[in-house]
Amino acid sequence: MTSSVPPLDRIRVGSAPDSWGVWFPDDPQQVPWKRFLDEVAEAGYEWIELGPYGYLPTDPARLAEETAARGLKVSAGTVFTGLHHGPAVWDTTWAHVADIAALTREMGADHLVVIPSFWRDDKTGQVLEDRTLTSAQWHDLTTQTERLGREVRDRFGLNIVVHPHADTHIDSEENVSRFLDATDPDLVSLCLDTGHYAYCGGDSVKLIETYGERIGYLHLKQVDPEILADVVADEVPFGPAVGRGVMCEPPTGVPALGPVLTAAQKLGVDLFAIVEQDMYPCPPDKPFPIAERTRRFLRSCGA
């Protein structure tokens, strides 16, 4: 690509601990948090997410000092929820959400990424519940998500962005559309993860063009179509699929990120586009060169 590519001036690019193979607050296979911060800044990113709560320091003064020293800012925190279980899980959900939302707010971010719970274990593949929700569970999922959006906004001033994810109940085009059609746009927006959506058969550009007003946040990643075909055929759970390399380095996979970013730019709103290349577990020296090349590639797209 050449310098004639128009600048995507509404897109704010960042990366996340996930791109360094970080899935858990504490895991000996993961890079230490200071190394992540050093490398993400050196790779050319200004924005980061908090990642799993407890991976980065949870004391806001300490975290603010560490990020500022590297020229980094926080775009969002992340929470995991099982809201299709209804009001019975609200108290435990809120206890989990409140600490993360408080730190997210303290760090000056505006977004809370909400990931639905998995219907099968992402490590063992054990089936935890039916992969298809009943009508009653769909009702609980949508109404409790609206409740979460309202409470997070009223108490912390944050916007929730729900993240369709492989091996959850909000995954395919059909289920994402059903979820969006049943929730209040003032309370619930979407974190469109291009890799997860492609993994589940969806078209990111089409989703942006169809539900543009609901797109509140982007995660940028790609899938390897050949590995994905084997994963689908073998019914491989998400965790082992990542181990097979199903999420690959841009621009070698799908979807093409240039058209996705162009479609997002056309919405005319400021959007974060946070790189997430799932590769847990990975050697500690693997993430940085990929992150650097990915940042260079995104600049070539205008971002």
UniProtKB/TrEMBL annotation:
InterPro entries with a match to the protein in the record = IolE/XylAMocC-like, Xyl_isomerase-like_sf, Xyl_isomerase-like_TIM-brl
- Quote the Gene3D superfamilies the UniProt record gives: Divalent-metal-dependent TIM barrel enzymes
Q: Which domain of life is it from?
A: Bacteria
For this protein, the record's SUPFAM superfamilies field holds:
Xylose isomerase-like
Q: Where is the Xylose isomerase-like TIM barrel domain?
A: 37-300
Q: What is this protein called?
A: Xylose isomerase-like TIM barrel domain-containing protein
Lineage, broadest ranks = Bacteria, Bacillati, Actinomycetota, Actinomycetes, Kitasatosporales
